[in-house]
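This part of the workshop introduces the protein records we will be handling. Getting from the letters to the tokens is the skill we practise here. An example says more than a description, so a record of this kind follows:
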Amino acid sequence: MITGTGFQLKFNIFVIEMRNLFYIVLLLSFAFKVNAQPNIIKKRKIREVEPARFGVGFGVTRSVLYLSRNIKEQNDANGFTGIITYHSRKNWRFTAEVTRFNTLNIEPTWLNIQAYTYELNAQLCAKFASSRTLFYPLFGLSYNTFRAYFTGVNDFMNLKAFYPVQSQVNTNWLGANVGAGMEHSFKGFSIFATYRMRVGKMERKNQFNIMDVCYGAGLRYDIKLPKSVNIFKGTRGRYNLD
């Protein structure tokens, strides 16, 4: 049998427990409410990225064409080069080039030589103290065409064993380009000069050697592409707008 004093004691304990439970529920409700609030997205400072550039150029090239065949001194071929470039937002620039050489004779063995070169190169640009002057190593691939009339006279390479004498010979070879260049820019234009060697597989031999050495110079006009602006929101920076 519960006395009045005992009932009052239990009632007081119940009230205290309910009050504590109310406080706990209130605290949890507040915590859930805070957690349910949308994250405040802070807009960070807009960072502008250096715009990429697209270029079109024209130049002149002087080359030995085919070193193992053109052994005569001061007998390089002159040609004209068209070039298209893409300068990335980093320091890399990529080029596509086509060169057509003037007709050349390597007498008495090769006559009426017609040569072409198609190239894809990459350049890693480095600025001097003046931001308008750049120096860059270059490397890439080239596809080279050598078409000529083979007389067979003074054939020190014994090519008569592979080509008929007094006949038209077409030779195509793949080369690896290695070289360097320098340029100076002003008002969207750039004056450039390059030096490169081409390494390829020697004719009828299972070995690689320097097949060509050439120099070039020219003028290029660069067009700035639309700037890219990165807008970072929150802590993840998920938005990238051009």
About this structure: The radius of gyration is 37 Å. The longest strand covers residues 167-186. The CA atoms of residues 53 and 225 lie 6 Å apart. Confidence is low (pLDDT under 50) at residues 229-242.
